[in-house]
Amino acid sequence: MSAKVGAISMAVLLAIYVALVGWRAVQFAATGEPVAIGIGIALIVLPLIAAWAIWRELSFGIRSQQLVKRLEAEGATDLGIQTTPSGRADRASADEEFARFRADAEAEPDSWRAWMRLGMAYDAAGDRRRARRAVRRAIELSRAS
Length: 145
Fold this sequence. Notes:
mainly alpha; single chain
């Protein structure tokens, strides 16, 4: 829940920032000076790129959460990976179980469930880059089905 509040707070702050910088960009462009116009254009473009990047991350988070909830409803989120006393996945156990999830994704390349579970296994093993790639693939496949 705190992650959602943080994400929403950052999105609101970005919207305020874009509005204020946008106003300043208009003021720069209104001067008619070539350098000021260039600064005005940069002040419009850079926040828009930042807003796009934040939207992309928020969208990824929302869609991946939806898929995890669907897997939970099906009772398919238990990866069989042992956890440490703190509740984190045991890295050695995750590494051992990982091959099974990769084989499942290779056997069913069009299954968003297999790719989502693979992403969860990558995450448990500590490989965030591959986890995000597998989850993105799961999102694409779930949209197609």
